[in-house]
TrEMBL record:
<protein>
    <submittedName>
        <fullName>NifU family protein</fullName>
    </submittedName>
</protein>
<dbReference type="Pfam" id="PF01106">
    <property type="entry name" value="NifU"/>
</dbReference>
<dbReference type="InterPro" id="IPR036498">
    <property type="entry name" value="Nfu/NifU_N_sf"/>
</dbReference>
<dbReference type="GO" id="GO:0051536">
    <property type="term" value="F:iron-sulfur cluster binding"/>
</dbReference>
<dbReference type="GO" id="GO:0016226">
    <property type="term" value="P:iron-sulfur cluster assembly"/>
</dbReference>
<dbReference type="InterPro" id="IPR034904">
    <property type="entry name" value="FSCA_dom_sf"/>
</dbReference>
<dbReference type="InterPro" id="IPR014824">
    <property type="entry name" value="Nfu/NifU_N"/>
</dbReference>
<dbReference type="GO" id="GO:0005506">
    <property type="term" value="F:iron ion binding"/>
</dbReference>
<feature type="domain" description="Scaffold protein Nfu/NifU N-terminal">
    <location>
        <begin position="6"/>
        <end position="94"/>
    </location>
</feature>
<dbReference type="InterPro" id="IPR035433">
    <property type="entry name" value="NFU1-like"/>
</dbReference>
<dbReference type="InterPro" id="IPR001075">
    <property type="entry name" value="NIF_FeS_clus_asmbl_NifU_C"/>
</dbReference>
<dbReference type="Pfam" id="PF08712">
    <property type="entry name" value="Nfu_N"/>
</dbReference>
<comment type="similarity">
    <text>Belongs to the NifU family.</text>
</comment>
Length: 200
C-alpha cells in the first residue's frame, strides 16, 4: 500500500473537522453518514473512530472522513493529530472500510424511500436530483458534508443533510437561501425545501 497523506480542513460547523486523504475511500457520489456507533455496523473504520470518546458522528465520502465531536470545550488542535494518525495508519495498513458495498446499500435505501410517484413527479424528481448532484453536492462536500434527495411531493422537496451539515449553525440558512432559491428558480413546481438530519 502506498503512503497515505492526510490533512485536516475546517468546516462551517465548528464541531466538525474534515480529514482529506490522497486515496479513494468510496466511488464519487456515494457517501455514508453514521450518527452513532449502532448506525456504523457496516463500517469497521467508523466503529474504531467511535472508540474515541469525543467522536459523536462519522461521515465518509469519496476521499475524506468528517468527524463531529461531542465535546465543544475540547479544542481541535489537541485531537487532530491523534485522529489524523489513526485514519492514516488504518488506511495504510489496508484496514477494512466496509463490510457491504455502500453504493449498493444506498441504491436500495433510495428505492425504498422513493415510493410510487406519479409520472410527472418522477420527471420533476429527476430534474431536482440532477440539480442537487451537479450544483449543490460539490459545494456541500467542500464543507465536509453531503446532501441527498429523499422525496418530492406536492411542491415540497425533502433532502437529507449529512456529515458536518448535520448540526451546523449555518445549515438552515444554506438550505433556505441557497438550495431552495436555486431549485425554485430552475424547477418552477418546487414550493419549499425541507431537510432531515439537521440538528439545531
Amino acid at each position: 500500500m502506498s503512503a497515505i497523506s492526510i490533512y485536516a480542513e475546517a468546516s462551517p460547523n465548528p464541531e466538525s473537522m474534515k480529514f482529506v486523504l490522497n486515496s479513494t475511500l468510496l466511488p464519487d457520489g456515494v457517501s455514508v453518514d453514521y450518527p452513532n456507533l449502532e448506525a456504523a455496523a457496516n463500517s469497521p473504520i467508523a466503529q474504531e473512530l467511535f472508540n474515541f470518546d469525543y467522536v459523536g458522528r462519522v461521515f465518509i465520502a469519496q476521499n475524506f472522513v468528517t468527524v463531529t465531536k461531542t465535546q465543544p470545550q475540547l479544542n481541535w488542535t489537541s485531537i487532530i493529530p491523534e485522529l489524523r494518525q489513526f485514519i492514516k495508519s488504518y488506511v495504510e495498513a489496508g484496514g477494512e472500510l466496509f463490510l457491504v458495498d455502500p453504493a449498493a446499500e444506498q441504491k436500495a435505501a433510495q428505492a425504498a424511500s422513493a415510493g410510487d410517484p406519479t409520472q410527472q413527479d418522477g420527471f420533476t424528481s429527476q430534474k431536482i436530483i440532477d440539480l442537487l448532484d451537479n450544483y449543490v453536492r460539490p459545494a456541500v462536500e467542500q464543507d465536509g458534508g453531503n446532501i441527498t434527495f429523499k422525496s418530492y411531493h406536492d411542491g415540497i422537496v425533502t433532502v437529507n443533510l449529512q456529515g458536518s451539515c448535520s448540526g451546523c449553525p449555518s445549515a438552515t440558512v444554506t438550505l433556505k437561501s441557497g438550495i431552495e432559491n436555486l431549485l425554485k428558480r430552475m424547477v418552477p413546481e418546487v414550493r419549499e425545501v425541507v431537510a432531515e438530519g439537521v440538528l439545531v
